[in-house]
Amino acid sequence: MKILIVNDDGINSKGIMALAKRLQMEHEIYVVAPLTEQSAVGHAITMKIPLRIFKIEREGSFFGYAVDGTPADCIKIGIRNILKITPDIVISGINNGSNAAINVIYSGTVSGAREAAIMNIPSIAVSVASHDVKDFSFAAEIANKFAYLVKENGLPNGTLLNINIPDLPKQKIKGIKVTRQSMSRWDDVYEKRVDPYGKDYYWLTGSMIEHPNENDSFDYFANLNGYISVTPIHFDLTDYSTFEKYQNFEF
Amino acid sequence: MKILIVNDDGINSKGIMALAKRLQMEHEIYVVAPLTEQSAVGHAITMKIPLRIFKIEREGSFFGYAVDGTPADCIKIGIRNILKITPDIVISGINNGSNAAINVIYSGTVSGAREAAIMNIPSIAVSVASHDVKDFSFAAEIANKFAYLVKENGLPNGTLLNINIPDLPKQKIKGIKVTRQSMSRWDDVYEKRVDPYGKDYYWLTGSMIEHPNENDSFDYFANLNGYISVTPIHFDLTDYSTFEKYQNFEF
Q: What angle do CA A94, A98, A99 make, to 5 degrees?
C-alpha cells in the first residue's frame, strides 16, 4: 500500500520513527510531519501565515518532509503539493500519550487522520496511553494490522479509526475492543507561578474525571482494563436529537 | 444572566465589542478572550507553555481579561482561575467569517463554546458568514435572543448551538432554520511564492466544494439561501454505524 504517515509529536519523535520503520517493511511509505511538537493543537490549520517545507534525512538517507505547521496542515499540503498522489491510507502517530475520551477533541494526532478522512482517504490514528513510552514496536504492529483490516473492510467516507493502546507488555494486553468515545474529561487545574520579574504565569495540569456509568465498551475504560480500543469517529458534529427537538420551535 | 463572552478573533476585534455592548444592556457580562487573533486554531489548548492573563480597558474602564492562548484556554482558565464562578451561559463570537460546514472543525469560535459544553455549561457560538463584516449589531441581537431561548429550553449536557448569520441587511434575512452540519469542505490550494532570500513558502487558499444532495436544512446552504442557521453540535465523535459494523469482526 501507499501509506502517508503524519503525527503531532513532530518528525523527530520516536513514535513516528517506529511506525515508519515497521510499515516500510511491507509498504511504500511517505512521511510528512510537523517540524516541531504540536501536541494538543486540535484541528488547527495555518491560514494567516505561510508554511515552509523541509526535506529531512535520517541516518544519511531521505526520511520525509517536515512542515512548520500542524498535523492537519501536513495532510493538506502533503497530499496537494508534496506527494501529488492520493495515498491508500493515512496513519497518524504513533502518539506518546492517550487520545481517548475528551482527548479526541484536543488531539493533533487524531486531527491529522481526520483531515485525511475529510478528503475521503481512509485513515487511522494510533496512540499509546502513557506519556513515557519506551517501546513503540507493538503499537507499530497494531498499526500495520489495521492498515490491512481497513483495506479489506473499508471505512465510510469521513470516518477514521482512533486506536489507543495501553502501555503494557504485549503479553499483558487482553485483546482488542471496538469502542465508543468515553465522555470522561479533564478536571483542569492551573498552577500559578511567579516569574523572575514578579509576574504571574499559569501551567495547565489536571486529572481525569471518569464519566459514571461507562464500562470497557468506552475507549478510556477499555485501555484502563488492558484492552486496545478502536473507536470509529467522524466529523459530523450535529446532535441529531437536539436538532429534532429544536425543529419544533417557533422563532 | 451571568454571561461569559469569548471569541477567536481576539479581545480587540469588533465582533466581541458589539456582542459585549449589546449583552451588557440586559446581563452581567464577563469577557475572557485571546490576546491575539486565533482564527482556525481549532480546539487547541496550551499545555507545553504557560499562560498569562492581562486586564484590558476600553474607553477608560475595565472591559475584560485577555489570555495569551486559544479560545478553549480562555474558557478553562477563565472559569477556573479568573471568574471562579460558573456563568449561566457562554457566548463565543461574534466571529468575522462563517463557521458552517467543515469550518466547524477548524473554528476557534466553535471550540470556545464547545469547551464550555464540555464543562456542562450551556453555550452558543455566533458567526457572521462574511470576512468583511461592517455591522455586528443584528448578529448581537440574535445572540441575545438565543441566550434567552437556551435559558428557557435548555440544552443537553455537552451540546451547544452553532449559529451562522448571513451578512445581509436585516430585512433581507428570510428567517431562522434549525440545521445540520453540511459536509461541504474546502478544495485546498497552496499558493507558492518565493521569499526575498530565494526560499519557497506556501499560502493556504481555496474554495468550497459544495456537497451534493444538500439543501437549506444544512447550515452552509441555509446561509447561502438567506437564512440564519442554528446547528446543535456535540463532541461525541463516535460513528455509531461503523461501531456496530466493526463489533462483528474477529481480531
A: 85
Helix, coil or strand: residue A247: helix
pLDDT for the residue A203? 96
Asked if A231 and A179 count as a contact pair (C-beta separation under 8 A), the reply is yes
A138-162 pLDDT, tens digit each: 999 999 999 999 999 999 999 999 9
Residue B230 has pLDDT above 90, yes or no: yes
CB contact under 8 A, B48 and A42: no
Q: What ipTM is given for this predicted complex?
A: 0.94
Distances (CA, A) of A222 to A98, A133, B134: 12, 18, 51
**A185 close contact with B: CB closer than 8 A:** yes
- From chain A residues 52-71, the ones with a CB under 8 A of any chain B CB are 52-53
In the chain, the amino acid numbered B181 is Q
Q: What is the three-class DSSP state of B128? A: strand
For the beta sheet containing A160-166, the strands, ordered from the edge strand earlier in sequence to the opposite edge, are: A53-58, A61-67, A28-34, A2-6, A89-96, A123-129, A160-166, A227-233, A175-178
Q: What is the pTM of this model?
A: 0.95
The gap between the terminal CA atoms of chain B, to the nearest Å, is 52
Q: Do A204 and B76 touch (CB under 8 A)?
A: yes
Q: Which chain B residue's Cα is nearest to A176?
A: B251
Q: Which domains does chain B have, with CATH numbers?
A: 2-182+213-247 (3.40.1210.10)
Beta-carbon contacts of residue B27 (< 8 Å; ≥ 6 apart): B1, B2, B3, B147
pLDDT tens across B7-63, in order?
999 999 999 999 999 999 999 999 999 999 988 888 999 999 999 999 999 988 899
Stretch A125-133: mean pLDDT? 95
- Compute the half-sphere exposure of residue A4: CA atoms within 13 Å on the CB side of its CA: 31
3-state secondary structure of B163: strand
- Mutant choice from A9, A243, A245, A247 vs B, greatest count of B C-beta within 10 A: A243
The C-alpha cell at B88 is 449561566
Q: How many CA atoms lie within 13 A of B26 on its CB side?
A: 11
CB atoms within 10 A of CB A85: 11
Flag whether residue A242 sits within 8 Å of chain B, measured between CB atoms: yes
Q: What are the chain A neighbours of B181 within 8 Å (beta carbons)?
A: 236-238
